[in-house]
Amino acid sequence: MTIQSINTRFRAYQLDTAGSSFSYFSGNEFILIEGRYCDANEYSIKQEMSICEIEKIGVLHITSWDQDHCSPSQLQKIIDDFHPRKIEYPGYAPHTDCGKESLDIIRYYKEKNLVDNIVSITPKYIESLSPSSSYGYKNILYWPKEIDNDCANNNSTVKQFRSGCFNVLSLGDVESTQIASYLRRTRSIYSEVDVMIMAHHGADNGFTTSTFIKEVKPILAIATSNYGNQFDHPRQEIRDLLYKNDVRLFTTKTGDVIVKSIGNHTGQFEVVNLKAGNTEVSSRYTGVARKNHFLKNNNDTLRDRQATHNRGPKH
Predict the structure, then answer these.
(1) Would residue 284 count as lying in a domain?
(2) Which in 36, 74, 101, 254 has the greatest CB count within 10 A?
């Protein structure tokens, strides 16, 4: 696999209530992450799609049935406005009215539009996928490999978006130390993560530990919060942990966070943290994607690296 030139953008959107909303664009596919679409992010999402010259969403990816990840009314508006070609939704049974209503909306959309590409991310579905065995540009699903009947958060979908020139790891609300241990030992994670969407908005719940950060080694960490940040995301203990490990933290408290490929779109990227409600920049950073270094190696070097590790997760 050689380095590819792919125009790539990631955006974390500020909301007017607690919750998460992101997008990942690579080449010609626009992925909206989470079913949140309200007054606070509607303009920004449309602006981002316009920048990417996209009119419809390719994939709507939902990590959790919790209302801060998927609101029924906002999910319906996403479907009505953008008609996603594919929907990836949580593979565990929703336990709240909000989740049940959201699932009904997705099922109705599938039946009404005869769309086959509506996927429930269950352990069985992940098991059916081919193993990921090389560096490259295919998105990877890691979790759930099993269903936790006691903690719905641990059934969140974990996926790495790596179809572009830089990679984004989405962790949903997972909080199990066992899941953290599995993920940090996975080669495509510990060698390729550039942007990490923090698990459970950066909660200090035992998932994000010093060991996890040292082994995953993300360049950037993204935590979502509304302007009021009533839940104190991320926790100060997590902020200190990121600082000690030289991981740059960006949050949506001040405004949207945009990561975009620059130059010839083969690995170099720029991060800008906007001020709320306008295009003024509050902070800026540039970096180089980690997989860029590996893809510069020759095939013998890559084969040697792969031979020392297991085949990894599924894509």
Answers:
(1) yes
(2) 36
pTM of the model: 0.91
β-partners of residue 75 are none
Query: Other CB atoms closer than 10 Å to residue 75's CB: what's the count?
Result: 25
Residue 256 lies in a domain: yes
CATH value at residue 138? 3.60.15.10
Q: Which amino acid is at 67?
A: Q
Cα dihedral value 276, 196, 138, 86, nearest 10: -50
Q: Which domain holds residue 156?
A: 8-307
- Cα angle 184-86-168, degrees, rounded to a multiple of 5: 30
Q: Which tokens belong to 64? A: 């959790």
194, 269 Cβ separation under 8 angstroms = yes
Q: What distances in angstroms separate CA 314 from CA 18, 141, 194, 245, 292, one per listed residue?
A: 31, 6, 19, 28, 21
Instruction: Return the pLDDT at 292.
Output: 84
- Residue 312 domain-assigned? no
- Mean pLDDT per block of 10 residues along the chain (315 residues) reads 91 91 97 97 96 96 97 97 96 96 96 84 95 80 96 97 97 96 95 95 86 96 66 76 94 91 96 79 89 69 46 50
